[in-house]
Amino acid sequence: MQGTGDKVREPCRRDIAVTTTIKLALGSLLIGALVLGLKVLAWWITGSVALLSDALESTVNIATAIAAIIAIRIASRPADANHPYGHHKAEYFSAVLEGVMIILAALLILREAYAGLANPIGVETPVLGLVLNGVATAINGAWAWVLISRGKTLKSPALVADGRHLITDVFTSGGVALGLVLAVVTGWWILDPAMAALVAVNILWSGSKVVKESLSSLMDEAVPEDTLKTVQQVIIREAGGALEAHDVRTRQAGTVTFIDFHLVVPGETTVFDAHEICDRVEAALADAVAGARITIHVEPEHKTKPTGIAVGCDPAM
């Protein structure tokens, strides 16, 4: 049985959220172009292999920002005959692509680092290069915080993945700067490509983590434990008139949380009364879990299970 939980609730608010998400993705594209320009200029001035590796890593920002924009627009499309559950998972594909691009950037950096280790050379005008790279790093750090915080609020996997990637970029730039400073101070120019290699290893780890998390979501991973607990508490509290609920299942798909379970009612319960109970539970779940889509299967009392949870009482009792 499906009710208010499957209906589009507050469409204006959802449209605003989608518009905001797309604007943030466009902002990432502009920020990525600005940061890339600063880092390329820093490398061009200094000739530093580490700064070149940092610039190469930043090219991923632009590619993934474009992928995120496309994915967010697809994910915002309403359900249709071919996609009755919507297009919400499109953002996870963008996140997987971002992880793959991060890994590719790390491999490119390792190649440049290897060439630098084989033939280390001095760095020209390092101070100006470090200043330019520092400005780019500060911009990335501020924008990463915006993307992660807003992405979590808007439940956008693409924005959160983009923000986490930028955090990695910030640490990368910090490591690059440290290596370049040490090379200038000590005169050991091999430290420049060596730091680039260390940065590449860190980026490989970050990229693999992004891919792993995104693939888990594509595999219909359940919602976090605290969200599941909230769902169960709402069912227990609001399903007065029913006997129990069992087989509670959840999955997250972008901004939407799918919830389905079986609700056992007494044999004498009318269809009207069962529907009223379901409507009440669905409305409460939709208020407690943003973007909830609920499906309830009503069953007679002989369908109770030992694993079921008693409903219609105070969950704190």
Automatic annotation (TrEMBL):
Q: How does it sit in the membrane?
A: Multi-pass membrane protein
Q: Where is the Cation efflux protein transmembrane domain?
A: 28-219
In this chain the Cation efflux protein cytoplasmic domain maps to: 224-301
Which domain of life, per UniProt?
Bacteria
A Gene Ontology BP annotation from the UniProt entry: intracellular zinc ion homeostasis
Report TM segments: 21-45, 51-72, 92-110, 130-149, 170-191
Please name the Gene3D superfamilies in this protein's record: Cation efflux protein transmembrane domain (1.20.1510.10), Cation efflux protein, cytoplasmic domain (3.30.70.1350)
GO MF annotation terms: cadmium ion transmembrane transporter activity; ferrous iron transmembrane transporter activity; zinc efflux antiporter activity
Q: A Gene Ontology CC term for this entry?
A: plasma membrane
Q: Where in the cell is it found?
A: Cell membrane
Alphabetically sorted, this entry's keywords are:
Cell membrane, Membrane, Transmembrane, Transmembrane helix, Transport
- PANTHER family referenced in this protein's UniProt entry, alphabetically: MITOCHONDRIAL METAL TRANSPORTER 1-RELATED
* Entry similarity comment: Belongs to the cation diffusion facilitator (CDF) transporter (TC 2.A.4) family.
Q: Which named protein is this?
A: Protein p34
Provide the taxonomic classification. Answer: Bacteria, Pseudomonadati, Pseudomonadota, Alphaproteobacteria, Rhodobacterales
